[in-house]
Amino acid sequence: MAIARGADKGPLAHKLGAHIYIDSTTQNAAEELTKLGGAKVILATVTDAKSMSSAVADWASTANSW
After folding, report:
1. How far apart are CA 44 and CA 3, in angstroms?
2. Which residues pair with 3 in a beta bridge?
3. Fewer CB atoms inside 10 Å of the end CB: C or N, the chain?
4. Is it the case that residue 7 has pLDDT exceeding 80?
5. How far apart are CA 51 and CA 66, in angstroms?
6. What is the largest CA-CA distance in the chain?
7. What's the distance, CA 33 to chain centroid?
8. Residue 53 CA neighbour count, 13 Å, CB half
């Protein structure tokens, strides 16, 4: 699974092996991840602090349901 900002990143995510791509500009990544059963590990390579801050806040609010 891959999560990124923008539909343009989807094809590369799939090419690199992601079976599922979540575009966080059009979907709530935390909600979508929760629907899929959550995650045991999240590897973040975000270089934009604002984007990471919002993602972490969303994931923290749903993590108890995993």
Report:
1. 9
2. 22
3. C
4. yes
5. 22
6. 32
7. 7
8. 3
Q: What's the start-to-end Cα distance of the chain, in Å? A: 16
Strands (DSSP E) found in the chain = 2-4, 21-23
**Closest listed residue to residue 26, CA positions, set 46, 10, 11:** 10
Name the phi and psi angles at 42, rounded to 5. Answer: -125, 120
Q: What is the pLDDT of residues 13-34, one digit of tens each?
A: 999 999 999 998 999 888 898 8
* DSSP 3-state percent helix, strand, coil across the chain (nearest 5): 50, 10, 40
pLDDT of amino acid 43: 82
Q: What angle do CA 10, 31, 40 make, to 5 degrees?
A: 80
Query: Residue 61 and residue 48: Cα distance in Å, rounded?
Result: 20
Cβ contact 37:62 at 8 Å: no
